[in-house]
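Re: [help] complex structure
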Amino acid sequence: MEVTRQNFKDCLSTVYSAIEEADFLAIDGEFSGISDGPNVSALTNGLDTPEERYTKLKKHSMDFLMFQFGLCTFRYDSAKSKYITKPFNFYVFPKPFSRTSPDIKFICQSSSIDFLASQGFDFNKVFGHGIPYLNQDEEAQLREQTEERRNQHANGLGTPSFISPSSSKVPAHVPDEQKDYINKVVEKVERLFNGNGKTLNLDPCTGFQRKLIYQTLSWKFPKGLHVETLETEKKERYIQISKVDEEERKRREQQKLEKEQEELNNAVGFSRVIHAISKSGKLVVGHNMLLDVMHTIHQFYCPLPEVKSDPFSIPVVLLDTKLMASTQPFKELINNTSLAELEKQAKETPFKPPQVETAEGFPSYDTAQEQLHEAGYDAYITGLCFVSMANHLGKTTNFSSTFGRVWALFPFHLLFLMRIIDIPYLNITGPDLQPKRDHVLYVTFPKEWKTSDLYQLFSAFGNIQVSWIDDTSAFVSLSQTDQVQIAMNTSRYAESYKIQTYADYIQGKQQEKEKLGQPAKTWGDDGWVKHHYPSSTASAGFGFSRKRSISPTQGEQGGDDGVSGDGWNHYSFPDSTGSKKIKYDGV
Amino acid sequence: MEVTRQNFKDCLSTVYSAIEEADFLAIDGEFSGISDGPNVSALTNGLDTPEERYTKLKKHSMDFLMFQFGLCTFRYDSAKSKYITKPFNFYVFPKPFSRTSPDIKFICQSSSIDFLASQGFDFNKVFGHGIPYLNQDEEAQLREQTEERRNQHANGLGTPSFISPSSSKVPAHVPDEQKDYINKVVEKVERLFNGNGKTLNLDPCTGFQRKLIYQTLSWKFPKGLHVETLETEKKERYIQISKVDEEERKRREQQKLEKEQEELNNAVGFSRVIHAISKSGKLVVGHNMLLDVMHTIHQFYCPLPEVKSDPFSIPVVLLDTKLMASTQPFKELINNTSLAELEKQAKETPFKPPQVETAEGFPSYDTAQEQLHEAGYDAYITGLCFVSMANHLGKTTNFSSTFGRVWALFPFHLLFLMRIIDIPYLNITGPDLQPKRDHVLYVTFPKEWKTSDLYQLFSAFGNIQVSWIDDTSAFVSLSQTDQVQIAMNTSRYAESYKIQTYADYIQGKQQEKEKLGQPAKTWGDDGWVKHHYPSSTASAGFGFSRKRSISPTQGEQGGDDGVSGDGWNHYSFPDSTGSKKIKYDGV
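Output below.
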């Protein structure tokens, strides 16, 4: 179901009940761009820590706009042994609802826009009919402003749109070249005031002229007039002057305030859908969903935590189908985890085609006619992939038993990490995996160096892997850990380049952070950094405590809760030998 | 005539000849936004100097996209005593022409996008079919890259898309989970190599898999194969492997390079139209055209000068109809200089309706059915306004005599400045007017202060005017210059606020600049700053000398050329009493 500003209000109850009755939800977003960072390889270094990757995405991706939000609800009908689906495709746009509301600026990335255009994406629908939204801060701020205006009004202070006693203290200073114009307006108003007419519409004029008119009329006619700026269909502003008694004037002002209040409620718009998803607390699946989740929170809810380690609660249960498909037992069965390929493979042997039926009144998608990159369709097939994989695990289609099996194997809130060699996921609400990387060197060199210079430098060590950080530094992964010491020894007297072990590099960075007041992390014995979070109390919405970080002592004392505990021990990781190549751009 | 990527090549010669034969050109642009600055009043302070305004626009407006460019050519037909017009409406979009070409990011401002959407602007046409473009730097860089690739090729170094000796030095390291997949590919290729077939298309696969395939094949089959990545209609990338002899391989590579070269030429795209306008050296009129001119240079030509005083040459003759309409003798005749209003007034008495005719083959615009904010239409009516005003001055419709009269009264390259109290224009290639402003005070105060606090502080001085700079400072214009000393005296012991004269404030800023290595300007005796530029040598294109600024001594010695001379002395200014109000936002 396609939802725009035009039918949003009418659809809202349908959306609410679909979420209410669903067993799980699938989501997907389309964006105006992916990354405004320097270049992809610097932005997604293969040896980023999840914390670093989070910080990069927050810094370089949040200024894009999520302008299409796909939601597909899945309800298991045990009588039919089928899932009943309700797909929604929301067009979203931050239309300023008044001249004082936030005027959002967002970035477009030509390649992304060009790609979407080539897929037939309808930009006119987004920009012309997108549903507006506000995050919680904006909503609160605007409610406050409206409240304030109302109070001022009650106290007789007036607003720029109304003539009130306070604005008539001084006569307007009218520049010579405007005197004729203003005098003519005053004459017209005098005729209105003394005549039988009730209302006078002036011709459209400039903002400066409108200001002069307001000031002059408020000085000359302190009572008995209601003056208001209106817009023609062509968005030209003009002034309407009405003769009113005091009671009528107040009634009009009250009317206007009520209209404002209603407009404000409308302005919250699409965020209401996100609030409903959030309140449902249900399972939300997505494919490679890290950016979708970050954008959804950032755009419709609240600012993202400054750093990933800030305690943050997610009110729903997140599961990433790309991570699922690249993990045992599925990684053996699926050799391409892109959404389109996964959808094809997950209905072939050994999987069974998922049994689904589109609910009455919803246009049904046909997977034979791919509509990839329409958010509603992508959400739909993400749900299909999840059903296939879940059924395969549970060896049944029954919802409850299937899902029990999924939870046993797949801890939630773990989101697939693109292009990281040895860490498969980011844990959005808890501590992340942090391998020791004792076969990795941190190398700095002159900015003229290219990958081939690094290959040459390390030619004695066989197969190496280079992960560029910036123009003058890179990680170099050796194939054998015991080569590290040899490399360090031979580099001791080098002048043009410098080599550090990964551990030393991390320690150096940590020391820099501590200088800036951020706490150290402690290294565990099992090769992973262990750090503990104070139990995050359950919350009805997204949110994070104001406490930015925790000291090591506090951390050691804090207990693990169900979410941030050792859930990842159940998880089978891809090997961490760092053998995957990641610099494959351009092929 | 609507021009998109689809008909651009076919239209180009029509555009060229229209420019060639024209007596003057009118232009207009539509943008994805206006200002990403803090707020309009801080961005456009009424007492900005032209230099400051330029710097603000450069900083806060150039990241928006000019996505529609309107050009209307006007040729005077003396037989018909009419202008023959050819209007063009170009849709422009920086479509990346390859995966290595610049991936432009641009900002959209919701209010601008919403406004254009409400006017029926076709975003799908822009994003789906916009003509690409490159500025001179990008063009040069890409030509260089293509050249480099060609040279590498000639030297047998190869590119990632071709198997070449250099890439086969080491076998690919294939991660365990990819071994099966790669082995199967190798088997297929072996069958191709030993069989009768010529070509093998692999299924679409991931970039990482493509890299492994390239590496593996280049190791296993160093000769006799041509491997290329192609795209399906759905933009999925797949690998095509062809059996070729050495000659055929080289021919294919050559073919590919030639195709690249042609694509590069196409990528220059719309910039070719700007080059043609630039080369024509003709009169170019625009309405409130400062941003149009800055965007055109920035987007299609070269980076804008860092500061406005950097010598910069404009190859065409610019004339701003909004400045013209707000100057004597027109300011008496026209009370609203917005384009739509000007167009209406400039065909009524005392003006005469401009005699124009749309050239054959061009769809004609009907000014009764306004199509405002379509760039081609706006350019068209801008030209009409110019013709009306020029005819009125010349008291004839004859092109040459009319224009002689225009030049006598209106020096060119002066562009209208929005919302500046006492300086009507910015001189884009020469020195600007800089009034003494000796009735102006610079006031700093606690950030809690509002306009009303300033009115109260200066209540003894009658009518004042406040121009906000930021949260804690503003210019306050007094109505009498002799009040300045009194205000200074009374403020001497104040603690919460501070007052400086405008002259002291400017001097302080100048001293700061000098610390940063920028030269001082000298004050003339006539109340305007005089500073002189070395004669800029005529140039075939836009451009500025690398010399950033000139020392006062050099400046005094430098001669005036025709452009930067005292042309502005002919010009009648609005009074500089600073009496116009500018804080009229929100009315």
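The mean pLDDT of chain B is 80.
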